[in-house]
Amino acid sequence: MTTLCDLFFPIRPFVPALLSTWLRMPYPVTCTTRGADLTQDTVVVLCPPQCTQWRMSVFGTGVYAAVSSICGAAVHRGILGPAGGPVRVHRLQGRHNYISSYAHGIHSQALSHWTASFSLTKPINVPQELISETSTTALPAAARPDCQMDIAMVIDSSSNIGQRRFNLQKNFIAKLAAMLRVGPIGPHIGLIQASDSPRTEFLLTNYTQPKELLFAIKELAYLGGDSNTGKAIMHTAETFFSQENGGRRGHPRVMMVLIDGWPSDDLDQAAMLARESGINVFLVSVAKPAPEELSMVRDKDFMKKAVCKDNGFFSYPIPSWFSTTKHIRPLIQRLCSLDGLLCSKTCYNSVNIGFLIDGSSSVGDGNFQLVLEFLAGIARSFEISDVGAHIGAVQFTYEQRLEFGLSDYSNKDDAINALRRISYMSGGTSTGSAISYTTQNLFRRTGPGRNFLIVVTDGQSYDDVRGPAMAAHKQGITIFSVGVAWAPLDDLKAMSSEPKDSHTFFTREFSGLSEFVPLVVRGICKDFTENN
């Protein structure tokens, strides 16, 4: 018998049809995917080529602890070669005394006990085209290596949408999720419902298998209430993409917000936080307000204010919930367009920061360590990597010493450790010459609004600072001056960029430097945002 639910929410026949496609082909994994990362009792996975070049942990012989790399264990077992290929994984119970051995270039380790295990066999009747594709690092249709995004779907669960259209919305996002094809090397999807208060339904890493994700969407319950989309965006921007909640470091952050009609609250502050956090907000508006309803819309420009950038790319209007299917592919093309995700670049992952450090005799070794801790506090606020933010340091007395360049360290821990290891020089104070040296030797990267120099000094410079500072400003370098003790305020302001007051800091004691960390970081981000 046909029910109302079948008429209004035809997802049940749709889900098995989608799943049958995935179940007929190997599931792509990385060289370091562990047995514990899989949820099925038996599954065929597809290992990429050249896994022996990766550092893989393998525990056991024949039967492997679930903490082991699947592909590493397959090489050890002798059923996987350098070209990669399919492997059948059988989940087993935990056991004691996993045995160490050396085989096929892999040294497996012993382990006294683990809570789960797996064994491996070579699958039969796997289509040859799936095996041959691994030799050229291509992946089967089940993976989307071109869309390695972390995507938060914020859906409308308010009284505006109603139960019927809510079910159509679920059908739409299920099809969208199916075509996105989640997986370890593809997109991850989490979901939040917008109502009176936002409700997180699942995080980015709760469902990384297509089958589980589609059924989780199917089970979503309608909430009702106000359409507080601003609250939902704020809630999502604050914590949803954190590493503790499954956000992947270095992966673009995307928030797709669906709204039926118009929001009940303001979106300005929430959208601003999302942009500052490097989140690309897309707004999919379905069934825009009719002319007679416009008087009820508190902010007629809500779409422009909500999105990452008001350029047409991040706004996607759909006339009706009954005509969403044809919009799935073009919407996915936008969500997965790496070049189009303008909000991925923020001050935290895009700036080059140079530290110009006074090493003169008046500073003293103890205070010099306080200066280094102050600068480490600034550096800690940024996402330092080979494709992210960069820091470099120059120490000066009468002479200058390049401690390390902007490209010398590609991760935060190494960069901060290098900063803390700088040895104190001791000598005179020639700040002007040091600025010129730093401009020429540290800042070789171009890009207005991206290069920042933090000058820390405790006294009068023996040479002119105005000329070198002006030359640095013309080169696109923004200078923040931080003075301590006897540093003249006139010199500090002469070095600083405009407006002088917000780029100049002074404290009588070196112990007061730590208070400037959030102010300097905020100033850098403000300048970056205004110039980019």
From TrEMBL:
Residue intervals of the VWFA domain: 150-335, 352-520
Q: Which GO terms describe its cellular component?
A: extracellular region
- Localisation: Secreted
Give the principal location in a single coarse category.
secreted
The record's section on InterPro entries has: ECM_Assembly_Org (IPR050525), LCCL (IPR004043), LCCL_sf (IPR036609), VWF_A (IPR002035), vWFA_dom_sf (IPR036465)
Q: Name one GO biological process term.
A: sensory perception of sound
- UniProt cross-references to SUPFAM superfamilies, sorted A to Z: LCCL domain, vWA-like
Question: Which CDD domains does the entry link to?
Answer: vWA_collagen
* Ranges of residues in domain LCCL: 25-118
Q: Which UniProt keywords apply?
A: Disulfide bond, Glycoprotein, Repeat, Secreted, Signal
Q: What does this protein do?
A: Plays a role in the control of cell shape and motility in the trabecular meshwork.
Q: Which PANTHER family is this protein grouped with?
A: COCHLIN, COLLAGEN ALPHA
What's the protein called, per UniProt? Cochlin
User: What organism does this protein naturally occur in?
Assistant: Astatotilapia calliptera (Eastern happy)
